[in-house]
Amino acid sequence: KEELALQLINNSQHEPRLYQHSYFRSAIILILALLMIMVLIGIAHALVIYRAVAMALFTQSEVNLLSKHADLIAVMTGAVLHYLTIVIMTKVNWQVALFLCDLEEPRTFSQRENNFTVKIFLFQFFTNFSSLIYIAFFLGRINGHPGHYVRIAGHWRLEECHPSGCITDLFIQMAVIMVLKQTISNIMEYLIPLISHQLRKKKKRPKKRSLMLGEEEEAEDPCKRQWLNNYELNEVNVFSLFNEYLEMVIQYSFTTIFVAAFPLAPLLALVNNVIEIHLDAIKMMRLRRRMVPRKAKDIGIWLQVLEAIGILAVIGNGLVIAITSDFIPVQVYKYMYSPCMGENHTSMDCSTGYINNSLSVFHIQDFEPHTKVLPEFKGVQIKECRYRDYRNADDYTYTVQFWHIFAARLAFLILFEHVALCVKLIAAWYIPDVPQKVKNTILTEKHSNLRNELSTTEYSTEV
């Protein structure tokens, strides 16, 4: 309605653009969006290949530091590469989303903004979280077992989880990405407008300014002087504020979806926001031109995006606790396989023996023929070794305990998600979206305006 009013104010002969829908155009946009998502997932696969190759190279390195901590260094360098791909693909995602919006030909600016928001968020979500999803739910689970490893190009083994558990790899990945995003990205976000503003000040042309407005008139009219000072600041566009929304939504995703693996994420986000709110204020008030205000009922489609993130957070954290962490295997061991179940050992910790129970036996003669023996083990008669898994020693099939753990994980996941969603719905009902004070202020203003309009109407009728 407001857009139609503005168009009629600017052009009294303006005709509204009718609603249109093209199935062919929608199909093309859907196919292109899916192709872009596949590219982003492919980049995550490339990072997986890098970590596998890097770990193999670091293990064979003559440098003691690299060979001793090959797994940790591979994970950390992979996290840095992941951050670099996020920075690069953010620019690419922006252009692709704009291209798809132009191809879609939305009827109004509001519709264009909503469509762009959905596309850029989807692309950014897969850019930021594809690698994290692999580490959380697939790392160490699709690489086979001794004697039958899954290898890249038949040569490099897929990486294993950290000895302390897969959740450690997820913690390291998230810590590196969040620290880099909250330091380098924020510094660049503030320095680029500052440098651009300084360059504009050096290149400003006083002759052009004097032509626009005489020096005497400028001195006499402070309002016009403020306009000219504002004109000399950095340019803004319709998506200048959009970047801030997108940044906060992505940060909210990081602090909620995998918070079970990285509990420090909300604290880092709080510290970052306290600093960034001051930097953004300086950037918007002193370095950029004033944006044209536009009336809005709320934050628009971002509400639906935040709602979707809330649902993903419940699912993601449930999966992290049930699948990534060792919480469920430990509980199954305590109540089904621990020494406490055999006799009444009140003084014994029921977790005693868990590590040994979580390791399976592998016979050395069952290794692949091309498997190389480390130099320190040559000449040593070793008949078997242990590895993290729940498999039988004879045919390497899954044990009964594996299926008990699998069933417990599934039951916990269903229970956790239902309870969390119920708590979420109760909290949404209990805490109002709009504070009562704001509602009362709006109600008072509406009542006052309506009273003034009615009194004016009565006065006009009496006259």
Give an overview in words.
The longest helix is centred in the middle third of the chain and has 38 residues, at 166-203. Helix content is 68%, strand content 4%. It has helices at residues 2-10, 23-59, 64-68, 70-104, 109-137, 166-203, 206-212, 215-220, 222-231, 240-257, 265-287, 302-324, 327-337, 354-357, 400-430, 436-462, and strands spanning 144-145, 148-149, 151-152, 156-157, 359-363, 384-388. β1 and β2 form a beta hairpin. Mean pLDDT is 82; it is low at 207-211. Strands 1-2 form a two-stranded antiparallel ribbon. It has a two-stranded antiparallel sheet with strand order 3-4. Strands 5-6 form a two-stranded antiparallel sheet. It has 463 residues and is mainly alpha-helical. The chain has 3 domains: 20-160, no CATH class; 166-294, no CATH class; 345-411, no CATH class.
Descriptors:
membrane, Anoctamin, 463 residues, two-stranded antiparallel sheet, 16 helices, two-stranded antiparallel ribbon, transmembrane, chloride channel activity, 3 domains
In DSSP terms, counting alpha (H) and pi (I) runs of 4 or more, how many helices?
A: 16
Low-confidence runs (pLDDT<50, min 5 residues)? 207-211
Percent helix, as a range, is 55-70%
* Shape label: elongated
The run of helices and strands is HHHHHEEEEHHHHHHHHHEEHH
Largest beta-sheet characterization: 2 strands, antiparallel
Give the spatial strand order of the biggest sheet: 1-2
The number of strands is: 6
Helix and strand content put the structural class at mainly alpha
Overall pLDDT = 82
The tally of domains stands at 3
User: If you compute it from the alpha carbons, what radius of gyration comes out, rounded to the nearest whole angstrom?
Assistant: 30 Å
Beta-strand residue fraction: under 5%
- The end-to-end distance, rounded to whole angstroms, is 34 Å
